[in-house]
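Hello forum,

I keep getting stuck at the same step: I have a sequence, I want structure tokens, and every attempt I make locally crashes halfway through. Rather than fight my setup again tonight, could one of you with a working pipeline run this one for me? It's a single chain of 497 residues.
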Amino acid sequence: MSEINKSWYKRLRLEVEDVKKFRGPYVNPYIRLAAYILITFLTGCVYWGWNGIQELLYKAGSFADVCAGESDISYIVLGNGQFIDCGLRKSEINNLYTVAFTSHFVFSVVGGVLLDIIGPKIVFLGSQTINLVSWLLIFTLPKNKFALIAGFFLIGLTAESSYVPLLTVSRYFPRNNNFIMTLLGSVRSLSFFVPMILAEIFKTDFFKPESLYKIGLIYVFCGNVVAIMLGGYLLQFKFEHDSMTQKSMELEVREDSEVMSYTSQDLINMLNPENNKKISCFGRLSDSVKAGFKHPQLLEFVLFLISSTLFLTAYGFINKAQREIFVTSDGKSALEVFKYFNILTFIPAPFMGMIIDKIGPAYAIFILQFFGFFFYVLIKIDAYVTKILACFCYIIAGSISISSIYCYLNKRFSPKKFGTLMGIVFVFIGAISLTNIPLYDLAVITLKDKAPFNFNPVEIGLATYMAVAASITSYLAANAKLKQPQHTKTESDSFSV
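Reply #2:
Ran it on my machine without issues. Output:
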């Protein structure tokens, strides 16, 4: 019996890298992982728990004045109080989500560049500090439109740069790095619970509408300050040792065709970075762009870019419009169910990580998009039961919505281009997500007289987004079977029959 237990233990145990291969502090990888999990829960992607933030802003009186004289005035109940609502107020509050969502993706490339230049510790600490100031700005000036826009813009701006440095922990688990990334991604989903906790506290009679700043102080000390203390100790200024061995390893990840084209001077410059200062940055950029357009995986990348952009634009709209799309014409609402299901997106994440490791990332992404399509099909039907079923679809569709992009690019493209490709994808997602502002305004302002069916045209359009995205991904999955990634061909040729 003990032998069987040992066998299972070996299978389940993660393979750990020697910590001395990386810079200190030399902490047990499991302890480091546990600390990064705590940081991710406290500060991972808090604004995606938008339901809780909505409730905080409604009670604090954000944009309440815009409802004066409006014909569609209604009231929402929070705790023992009623708070005014109307189409214009919905628009002002929920467009803040799009501001954060767009800056999140558009500026994620900046975080990636800074990570390479100044290292994980400085990027993380700087991002957490900006994050802390942003939350204080929002919580202390909830009735100031410009303070709210600036605050949520900065929240989005630092969303990835405060998280990506934590992904370095996956390097301590070389055979399970995709699993570790999806594990952190699933914990990031749990961080959506944080605004709900804060909202439940704020909804009590103990806190008056004008005392939102007290909630802000509670969060920044329990969240950002704890994250800064842990990350400040554990994260490295530079992750790897600067050694000739490490620099020479950079050659190993380059494609054979590229290495063969190097002159002896090119190789000297690679191993002596100071020589590279003589090379024009513009020239390097120009060469990279030309090489990109000639790359055999260009079509695959463009299709993945389109698919990811359509999927995450449609996915982002759900959080923004949750208070409206989960309500039926007879007044029943599945919103209270959805806000808990929003947190449960962490549950399928490890399973999705296994699918990525076993059969490939395109299959996992197709599953996300397939359930995203059925979410919109079900949510459009004017029945309470279908809106509950849509919640189940959302759990799967949102499980690794961002992590799947990391995993696909990590698996299918050369590691040395990871940051650039990720940046391009995220910039497009952020830019196209801005279209959610006019789409939402179309429903809550232009079509407000057709409520509760005013979201139907938008839901049909976003269901089409999901269908097109899933169709493209199904092609990418089939293509992955036929064509190996360019950067792995040499390795696999050694094993080909």
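The beta strands are 74-78, 81-85. If your local run keeps crashing, start a new thread with the error log.
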